[in-house]
Amino acid sequence: MPKSNKLRAALRLIVINAVVFLLLYGLIELSYSSYRYLTDASPDSFALFEHPGETIKFDPIRGYYLTPTPSRVARVNFGKIEFTGSFRGNAEGFADRDDFKIKRSSADERRVGVFGDSFTAAIMEPLNSPNWPNRVEDLCQLNGSRRLTLLNFSLDAAGLANWASILRGIVVKDQCELDGLPRLQETTR
Q1: Measured on CA atoms in the order 102, 168, 115, 185, is the torsion positive or negative?
Q2: From the CA atom positions of the chain, what is the Rg in Å?
Q3: In Å, what is the CA distance from 38 to each residue of 25, 32, 33?
Q4: With 0-12 CB in 10 A as exposed, 13-18 as middle and 19+ as buried, what is 131?
Q5: In whole angstroms, what is the distance from residue 15 CA to residue 8 CA?
Q6: C-alpha closest to that of 97 among 60, 73, 74, 125
Q7: Using one digit for the tens of pLDDT, what is the confidence trace for 72-129?
Q8: Which of 24, 61, 155, 163 could lock onto 169 through a cystine, CB 3.0 to 4.6 A?
């Protein structure tokens, strides 16, 4: 068999296999899409964001940066609203209602840095419900004690690596004036 005939036979085999593959793929895709459309077109679980892309921005130090643009969020799980909340950051990009500055505003201000995850950021708290650092500040103000400012460096879904990066890349690098960081005490039984 001449060389050109072998080449034509190989090309013909490749074309036939490609056509069969595309027809089978199209049949499977059409069948599955029809099944999903006719049985249940909606996913079981999803989240809705009011301003996607405007409130949460990527940040190489923190993981993400929260802008002051508020974005309500709702999580729907199997047709029921699981939780609602609001993402909103202060001027420094953290989930704190107060815009804190790197330098202290007055000599009598006591400043403590707070690191945490979703429990401290409390983004999913109902609107107008402060997270625990804000509540502590409010209680100190009500009791008339020395002015306490908790600089809330917490972010939802953050962990040790994020906290270390924020500590190095923001608090230490910018020489943030702090009187301390809370110390976690291990309890013994």
Answers
A1: negative
A2: 28
A3: 20, 10, 9
A4: buried
A5: 10
A6: 125
A7: 888 888 888 888 888 888 899 998 888 888 888 888 888 999 998 888 888 766 655 6
A8: 61
Average pLDDT over every residue of 20-40: 87
Q: Helical H runs in 40-177?
A: 118-121, 132-143, 160-166
Alpha-carbon distance of 73 to 83, in angstroms, equals: 8
By the 8 A CB rule, do 112 and 179 touch? yes
Say how far apart CA 15 and CA 9 lie, in whole Å.
10
The predicted-structure confidence for 132-188, as pLDDT tens digits, reads as follows 888 888 888 888 777 888 999 988 888 888 889 999 999 999 999 999 887 655 545
What are the CA-CA distances from residue 147 to residues 104, 112, 114 (Å)?
11, 11, 16
Cβ neighbours for 162, distance < 8 A, ≥ 6 positions apart: 62, 63, 155
Tell me which residue of 102, 101, 93 sits closest to 63, measured CA to CA. Answer: 93
Residue of 143, 144, 150, 145 whose CA lies nearest to 121: 150
Q: Which candidate, 126, 135, 133, 146, places its Cα nearest to that of 94?
A: 133
Question: What pTM, to 2 d.p., does this model score?
Answer: 0.66
